[in-house]
C-alpha cells in the first residue's frame, strides 16, 4: 500500500508555556496617580506598592498579579501614552456587588455601567482603562 504524505503526522513538541497567567499589565500615564487610584479602589496601602524602575508598580493581589506600567517600550513615551484597554481584559472579584458598586460611586470612580444581570459592572480608571467588577 502506497503511503500518502498527508497520512504522515508529526508529533508536535510539548509546549513549555504553562496554562497559567502570571500578571496582567495595565497601561497608565502617571504611575504615582494610578498607584493611589488602584490602592484606594482595592483597599491597599499605597506604601506597600513600590514603584520599580520608574515605570512599574506591582500591586499586592490575591491570585493573578496586576502591574501598573507606563509602558515606555510600548508607546508610553508618546504624547498620548500607551493605548488604554477599551474592553475589560480582566475582572476584579467581589462577594458583595451592591457594596462594591456603592463604594465605587462614593469614591468618585467613573462608573461605565450600572450593575448588569445582577452579576457585574464596569468602571473606568483615570487613564480610560475599562475594568469589570464581578460577583464571585
SSE map:
Elements: E1 23-27, H1 31-42, E2 56-59, E3 65-69, E4 91-94, H2 97-106, E5 110-111, E6 120-124, E7 130-135
Parallel strand pairs: 1-3, 4-7
Antiparallel strand pairs: 2-3, 5-6, 6-7
Keywords: Dioxygenase, Oxidoreductase
GO molecular function, one term: dioxygenase activity
Protein name: Catechol 2,3-dioxygenase
Describe the structure.
With 136 residues, the protein is α/β, with parallel strands linked by helices. The chain folds into 2 domains: 22-76, 2-Layer Sandwich (Signal recognition particle alu RNA binding heterodimer, srp9/1), CATH 3.30.720; 84-136, Signal recognition particle alu RNA binding heterodimer, srp9/1 (2-Layer Sandwich), CATH 3.30.720. Helices cover 16% and strands 23% of the residues. The protein is built from 2 helices and 7 strands; from the N terminus they run βαβββαβββ. It has helices spanning 31-42, 97-106; strands at residues 23-27, 56-59, 65-69, 91-94, 110-111, 120-124, 130-135. A 4-stranded mixed β-sheet has the order 4-7-6-5, with helices on one face. A 3-stranded mixed β-sheet has the order 1-3-2, covered by helices on one side. β6 (120-124) and β7 form a beta hairpin. It is globular. The model has no long low-confidence stretch (mean pLDDT 93).
Strand content: 15-25%
Mean pLDDT score: 93
Question: How many structural units, i.e. domains?
Answer: 2
Portion in helices: 10-25%
* CATH C-level name of the largest domain: Alpha Beta
By oligomeric state, this entry counts as: single chain
Report the CATH topology name of the largest domain: Signal recognition particle alu RNA binding heterodimer, srp9/1
Topology pattern, helix = H, strand = E: EHEEEHEEE
- Spatial order of strands in the largest sheet: 4-7-6-5
Radius of gyration, rounded?
A: 20 Å
SS content category: alpha/beta
Morphology: globular
Largest sheet: 4 strands, mixed
Cα separation of the termini: 59 Å
User: Low-confidence runs (pLDDT<50, min 5 residues)?
Assistant: none
CATH architecture of the largest domain: 2-Layer Sandwich
Number of helices: 2
Number of DSSP strand runs:
7
